[in-house]
Write a structure and sequence with these properties.
The chain is of the alpha+beta class. It has one domain. It is built from 2 helices and 8 strands, in the order αβββαβββββ. The strands form 3 sheets. Strands 4, 5, 6 and 7 form a 4-stranded antiparallel sheet that branches. Strand 1 and strand 2 form a beta hairpin. The chain is elongated.
Length: about 180
């Protein structure tokens, strides 16, 4: 048998095996929506209505300027015995400030922003909807990537990828530069 014929037989077998694998593999399981509630009790607001994948989703992921906050409050409060009362975002997750930020300018990008997703909002979000007891000044700052980031008393706000539930405060004191935000 010629070498070229052997090569064609091997290629044909690889194609057949690949097609068999593709069509014979089990379908991916359907992931149920998270049971986590947004600030106002609506399910899964932290993921823009998508299944919970463990990461805070941001507007514009599909090329659109999606509203993030929706009917939820922009900021609310939670607390525990160790930290007292602290702020939470629209999704019920703890928000943090970064000591290396200068004024209202965010300096957290690239790997930093992957671990500490900025609290990004869309222009149409009502950022003035606050829970009673949140009395600071809420605003936005423009990030260098063109997104609007929520600020509190002039400081950009972030979530922490290490927080998995709304009551987590795993980012408190990380590196001596990340802190929960007090109302």
């Amino acid at each position: 048998m010629k070498t070229s014929t052997i090569v064609w037989v091997i290629v044909a077998l690889a194609v057949v095996a690949g097609a068999w694998y593709y069509f014979a593999r089990p379908a991916a399981p359907v992931q149920a929506p998270s049971n986590g509630a947004g600030l106002n009790g609506s399910a899964n607001q932290g993921n823009l209505g998508q299944p919970d994948n463990g990461q805070v989703q941001q507007p514009g992921a599909d090329g659109q300027e999606d509203a993030v906050i929706g009917d939820n409050l922009a900021l609310g409060t939670d607390g525990n015995a160790k930290l007292g009362t602290y702020l939470i975002g629209y999704n019920g997750m703890t928000v943090y400030t970064y000591a290396k930020d200068t004024g209202s300018t965010s300096t957290c990008y690239d790997t930093c922003a992957q671990n500490w997703p900025p609290y990004v909002v869309a222009p149409q979000d009502n950022i003035t909807q606050l829970e009673a007891g949140v009395s600071g000044k809420v605003g936005t700052t423009m990030r260098t990537d063109g997104n609007l980031q929520l600020t509190y008393n002039g400081h950009p706000l972030y979530f922490y990828i290490g927080d998995k539930t709304g009551s987590d405060t795993n980012g408190q004191g990380v590196g001596g530069i990340w802190y929960v935000v007090k109302p």
